[in-house]
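Continuing from the previous page of notes. For each protein in this section, the sequence appears first, followed by its structure tokens. Read the first protein now.
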Amino acid sequence: MKESILNSSNLFLKLALIFLLLLLSVSGIYFYASFQIAEKHFEEKNQKLNADIAGHIASELKPFLNGTLKEQAADEIMHSMMAVNPSIEVYLLDANGKILNYVAPYKKVVLDSVSLGPIEDFIANYKDEAILGDDPRKAGRKKVFSAKKVEEEGKTLGYIYVILASEEYDSANEQLFGSYILKLGSVYGLITILAALLIGILAIWFITKNLSSTIHTVKRFQQGEMSARIKINSGGEISRLAEAFNEMADTIVGNIENLKSMENLRRELVGNVSHDLRTPLAVIHGFIETLIIKQDQLTEEEKTKYLSRALTGTERLKKLVEELFELSKLEAKQIKPSKEAFFINELMDDIAQKYALLVEEKKIKISAEGHDKPFMVYADISLIERVLQNLIDNAIKFTPENGQIKLQINEKAQEVEIQVTDTGNGIPQDQVPFVFDRYHIGDKRISLDTNSTGLGLAIVKRILEIHDTSINLQSNIGKGTTFSFSLPQHSV
């Protein structure tokens, strides 16, 4: 528990630090973007408010007379405009953009000409969005401006080009704007960062708190508390993780239970084998030992008799071992049916013919009955043959002389029902629930005086279970017993 709390705390600190770094990065990007947007907004506003200033200057200034520049007159008018609005710089350009005259603080001009593209665009298309032109006082820098074409008799003589924010004005404005941004960032920005940080830390704490509970539950499960499950309160990634863990835990517990069941089956098999093999081995051992000890005292007929009984014992022992392992593999689900389509009528006829000689010795009649049409089913033909053989063996064992065993087929919806009926004494109702248990023969265990191992009906039940069907039993005392099961009908 202590370890999980420490891990949760470390995770909380790491997530909080990562969140803080992300928040600072986003804040820096935000302030930079805000500065750029604010600066662009100022330029657009300044150009929009002063868009006509060049036109006013042009209406007052007549710099050309008969196409010749009047420098003195131009200087007087331009200086008077600078006196009215000291934040501007006024330039007189010829028709090619060459600077003819200008009024700028400290006479600091480094360009001889400016590009006419933005000027023509401003005169022809200006609406609201800022248009930037060359700054004659610094190569490569762009500024908002106002411009007006100077014409005489329809001929373009030059342009009035007004930079709306002089270099000195820009310097002062940048200082004031920087101070404004600093104040805004230090007050509102700090409040925003602290609020976001607080909310983020609370969110991370809540997430890691749930994660701590999840880790604690996983630790409990790891330490052997198989019933430990993560409580799911709401949706989200943590809840999906909890659901996945709970499903995994259920699967693990189920697998453990299956392993326990398999272990119990293994122990039961060992117990049954050790018990049931001991008796026939003892009998075989007894006959062989007698033959060895009394071989000089026994007649040839007695020797043959003892050897025959020992041989019969080995055959019964072999059959018992085979059926024990067959049933064990079925119970362990190690046998998978290899299903195919086949005609059940043909299989039942073949089995009835194979048993004809055997039942004739016991004066029992065996017959296979069904519809005139053949029925095709989908199953493992060898395993279904094994089922029918075990059911017939069981019927022969309990059917008296002059009795009858009948194999019958009935059509039921999309299935085919197979019945094996005998005319034996029937099974008492109190024993019906135990008929398919191991070694059940009436209310007694198997003995060496019978040819049965007591596993036949248990094998039948398991084979049909892996075919996703079940065995049914109907019995009447003094009238006989019917075993039935169904298989899916296969369409040709």
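Done with the first. The second protein uses the same format. Note its length before scrolling.
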Amino acid sequence: MKDRVNRVVLIGTGAVGSSYAFALLNQGITEELVLIDLNKEKSEGDAMDLNHGMAFAPSSMRIWFGDYSDCKDADLIVICAGAAQKPGETRLDLVEKNARIFKGIVDQIMESGFDGIFLVATNPVDILTYAVWKYSGLPKERVIGSGTILDTARFRFSLGEYFDIDTRNVHAYIIGEHGDTELPVWSHADIANRPISEWVAYDKKYKQEDLDKLFINVRDAAYHIIEKKGATFYGIAMGLVRLTKAILQNENSVLTVSAYLSGEYGQKDIYVGVPAVVNRNGIRGVVELELTNDEKQQFDHSVSVLKKFVTSVFE
């Protein structure tokens, strides 16, 4: 009989956190889910509401409203707490506000004796993932940010629409900051093992200028969604569940997460969105793509923007 079960602790049951909890229940990824939020009434209500759907879930899950002492036995802590991006705000505008909030959260988690993996979703995600790594003292492999997982999903979806191909058969990455300086890796984008550049070269109905516009729409998608409905939460919730599954089921999946670089891509001491192998121990390793000169310059620029903000918070 297995007496050790997987426990996920969710910090922050706002729009993103509660969407993640709902998606997690629907996919039956973990055995235990603990909800923690400053608004105790809200997280207690969420726990009740989720439990009432248990009869329709694919597998049993124990869900409860808890506190930081529950973090001690957690395998994975997912942080969705913090100030949300408002219309007109960039993700980087949130830096100082959320860094202060995170210090208090991470201190309380580590006081519990937690020794698992952190998954950070709050924006600006690359900088806050770096903050969690600094505040927690855990190895870099066990602190992961959602990075460009959602941007990559948006990119694949949009390319699938453009070429009329199932998004799951489109292979393409967005890397860099989860934000305004991110970039598409066109040099490694393909459908059915055929580079996107070939699809464009051999069929006149496809145009590079269309693809350039497509990327701009992917990059700015959050602004459009926030303008229309106030926040983005379903897409990122699905991305977080995908990461949770990769971690708890030891999948060794390649996903574009915010990972710590120790010389990969010529960069050090920064968390930034790159393809990485994710398993039960966190990040097994960063996948280093061979970038074109233009892509390398764009990536270096993205990192330099992030480093400026990291310096402002930690020095």
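What the second structure shows: The chain has two domains: 7-145, 149-314. DSSP finds ten helices and 14 strands in the chain. We return to this in next week's lecture.
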